[in-house]
Write a structure and sequence with these properties.
CATH architecture of the largest domain: 3 Solenoid
CATH superfamily of the largest domain: Hexapeptide repeat proteins
Strand order of the largest sheet: 1-3-6-9-12-15-17-18
CATH class of the largest domain: Mainly Beta
CATH topology of the largest domain: UDP N-Acetylglucosamine Acyltransferase, domain 1
Radius of gyration: 20 Å
Largest sheet: 8 strands, mixed
Order of helices and strands: HHEEEEEEEEEEEEEEEEEEHHH
Strand content: 15-25%
């Protein structure tokens, strides 16, 4: 029985059932789940797409956001219009690094990560603090985002970065650990975008104003007219 439950065919059937169930549930929101995507306890907005072999757990996707191939998105709240490149990991479980004698979950978790063995009565450590990714964020390929981190609106995370602390809105960060390289716009432009919140406009407005997105100065000028 164990071999049957872990067979490739069983995994394929599980994926197919998940795909049909969720795409039917979100049919009016145009959700697309590609081959062998795994989803547990997630919520979706409009026009989300999850590419091949990605795994999602306890996460939320805002409108028009997507995750490319082979991502692991755990315990993460994602805003609208966010682009997640391939091989990105976010919000993986935490382990204690101080006070506890051991970092092994046997001593603080009831989830039974070690072959189901549990020796404590209740959880003693927050393993899954929520990771937050804002609106209009671009995360390059092979990025790791530490649990509990907050990435501000409009930020760009360079490929291969390891993000260990909060990222400011409209900043460009990269490296291991990730550090700020520069900002995309001036402070005045960033403040305008944060106040204007174009990502909350409806699709008709987006379509009507799509040409303004090519230039920040033109965008601001047109949207500050009385």
């Amino acid at each position: 029985m164990g071999a049957l439950l872990s067979s490739p065919f069983t995994y394929w059937l599980r994926w197919l059932f998940t795909k049909w169930r969720l795409e039917l549930k979100y049919r009016k929101q145009h959700l697309q789940l590609e081959y062998m995507v795994e989803v547990q306890n997630c919520r979706f907005g409009n026009y989300n797409k999850i590419y091949k072999y990605s795994r999602l757990r306890n996460s939320e996707f805002g409108d028009f956001s997507y995750a490319a191939r082979n991502c692991q998105v755990y315990n993460t709240k994602i805003g609208k219009f966010t682009c997640i490149g391939p091989n990105v990991n976010t919000g993986m479980g935490a382990h204690p690094s101080a006070e506890f004698v051991s970092s092994h979950p046997l001593f603080y978790s009831t989830l039974g990560q070690s072959s189901g063995l549990v020796i404590i009565d209740s959880n003693l450590f927050d393993e899954f603090p929520e990771t937050q990714i804002g609106n209009d964020v671009w995360i390059g390929n092979n990025v790791t985002v530490r649990y509990g981190v907050k990435i501000g609106d409009g930020a760009i995370i360079g490929s291969g970065a390891v993000v260990t602390k909060d990222v400011e809105p409209y900043s460009i960060v990269g490296g291991v650990p990730a550090k700020t390289i520069k900002y995309r716009f001036t402070p005045e432009q960033i403040d305008f975008l944060q106040q204007f919140k174009w990502w909350d406009k409806d699709l008709d407005w987006i379509k009507a104003n799509k040409d303004l997105f090519r230039n920040i100065e033109k965008f601001m000028a047109e949207n500050t007219k009385e």
